[in-house]
Amino acid sequence: MSDIAGHIDANYDDFLSELKDFLRIQSISTESGFAEPTRQCAEFVADKVRALGFSGVEVIATEGNPMVVGEHTQQPGAPTLLVYGHYDVQSVDPLELWTDPPFEPTERDGRLYARGAIDDKGQVHMHLKALETRLKGGSGLPVNVKLVIEGEEEVGSSNLEGFLRTHADRLACDAVVISDTGMLAADCPSIGTGLRGIAYLDVIVTGPAGDLHSGSYGGAVVNPANALATMIAALRDADGKVTVPGFYDAVRPMTEAEKAQVAGLPFSEEEFLEEVGASALGGEAGFSTLERVGYRPTLDVNGMISGFTGDGSKTVLPSKASAKISMRLVPDQDPDDIADRFTAYFKSLAPSGVSVQVVMSHGGHPWAADPDRPIYEAAAAALETVFGKPPVYIREGGSIPIVSLFEEVFEAPVLLLGFALPGCNAHAPDEWIDLGIYRKGIETIAHFYDEVAARGV
Ligand code: BES
Ligand code: ZN
Of 30, 43, 159, 180, most Cβ neighbours within 10 A? Predict the structure, then answer.
């Protein structure tokens, strides 16, 4: 067998320069006005996949951003892996907080900084370069690989379900592999065994017909901004529990075995605190940080808009106040059920004098893995080969809403093989990928194919 590490070393500069080209494309899906660069980004991915010798490579239009598909299926009888990732990225706002421009990838101290560096272009690229390493490096691909790289993950993947169902035959597979999650630490290879679900809602509180002078009317008219603040404050109690009636009804309580597993993970609250840069941590009483993130649901305000927010002061009583609220969900909570419960409760909190509108933005189901499958052993073996130690198993706090959909449509297990490090600033200014991990990720995936070929899924 030819030398995987040697091939990566010999081509590393080209890999990195291509990754930078990928990161230069402004494929923002969370704001309007970027449809053209986003489409170009899909073409970029398709070109790279074609260059690998894949067949059926296509950029397929949807009602939103296009999908990129392709396959390399020349091993009859061997397992077929479907690799899913996303080429779209989050907005770069607030731009002024970036050290370097977000679409001019910049290397500093072993990291590459750019929007999408880790979420998820960098991780998609690891797969492309692992495939290249096998297909161009002489060792060949011992399994079948199909790719679906989408452009709307950051906005809820609304066109993916229809797409997967329409193309279910073409995309049929034995397992799904996704690299869009994280590692506990750089020296801690990790396999994701769970994701939280999400229910994301806009709430709009409306009071007077128009903005009013806050002297002439203040104190005599219900202020929607004050009302919204009071209503939001009532959504959690002093123990950090969400007060929406029935919110916890479907939550699977942690088992003793799960508690022990989490307690045994090499995790430092101090480092986590340092990573977030706050003065203290907070959350639901009675749970550790890893438990709060991986096993417990929560409710957060993502943004609030009301009244005058410019420089200086303007005395105004706003006519409207709105907020963006997300609830991260755990098995077996259902996003639609939770959204309904939230809506009824939130409306009941409104004082007279305001009206409340609640609009569901998007939702996604939580997911937990069955890690007793050969594909998990295959991933563990590949990680151990490259990182020199066995992986840890972690439940992620983030959401990839389509994971349960993949399981259902293909009746296949999903493997989360993620390489994002803590503090990588996904969705924030100065997003980065650790280039040492980028290289190890490529190597791990290149070895993983052999392990899957040997063990099955
Ligand atoms: N890569 C993330 C998902 C993720 C984040 C997994 C952190 C594990 C840890 C993905 O690109 C993402 O950001 N998903 C969104 C989904 C939402 C828009 C429906 C998320 O979690 O906010
Ligand atoms: Zn993301």
Answer: 180
**157 CA distance to ligand 2 centroid (A)?**
11
* CA 400–ligand 1 middle distance (angstroms): 6
Three-state DSSP state, 107? strand
Rounded to the nearest whole angstrom, what is the distance from the C-alpha of residue 71 to the centroid of ligand 1?
26
Report the SS3 class of residue 282. coil
Give pLDDT, residue 1.
46
Q: Which residues does the annotation mark as catalytic?
A: 88, 153
User: At a CB cut-off of 8 Å and minimum separation 6, what does 221 contact?
Assistant: 207, 208, 212, 317, 353
Phi, psi of 132 (to 5 degrees): -60, -40
Dist CA 149 CA 38 (whole Å): 12
Bridge-based pairing of strands 175-178 and 80-86 is: parallel
Over the stretch 86-125, which tens digit does the pLDDT of each residue have? 999 999 999 999 999 999 999 999 999 999 999 999 999 9
**For residue 94, cis peptide bond before it (omega within 30 degrees of 0):** yes
Whether residue 83 has its Cβ less than 6 Å from ligand 1? no
Residue 155 near residue 361 (C-beta atoms within 8 A): no
Nearest residue to 237 (alpha-carbon basis) of 200, 188, 276, 285: 285
What φ, ψ does residue 420 adopt, rounded to 5°?
-80, 135
Q: What distance in Å separates the CA atoms of residue 121 and residue 117, rounded to the nearest whole number?
A: 6
Cα gap 196→244, rounded to integer Å: 18
Label residue 414 left, alpha or beta by phi (over 0 means left) and psi (-120 to 50 means alpha).
beta
The strand ranges marked E within 142-290 are 144-150, 175-178, 190-195, 197-206, 212-213
153 lines ligand 1 (CB under 6 A): yes
Residue pLDDT, tens place only, 284-302: 999 999 999 999 999 999 9
Q: Say how far apart CA 290 and CA 272 lie, in whole Å.
A: 10
The answer to whether the pTM exceeds 0.85 is yes
Backbone φ and ψ of 303, nearest 5°: -175, 155
DSSP per-residue codes, 319-345: SEEEEEEEEEE-TT--HHHHHHHHHHH
Q: How far apart are CA 324 and CA 202, in angstroms?
A: 5
Cβ 115 vs Cβ 103: under 8 Å: yes
- CB-ligand 1 contact for 450 (6 Å cutoff): no
Residue listed under structure tokens 């690799």? 83
Whether the bond into 331 is cis, omega within 30 of 0: no
Instruction: Please name every residue paired with 148 in a beta bridge, in sequence order, or none if there are none.
Output: 69, 84
CA distance 378 to 230: 51
Residues with CB under 5 A from ligand 2 (ion): 119
Q: Which two three-digit tokens encode residue 410?
A: 């293909």
Weakly modelled stretches of the chain, pLDDT under 70: 1-2
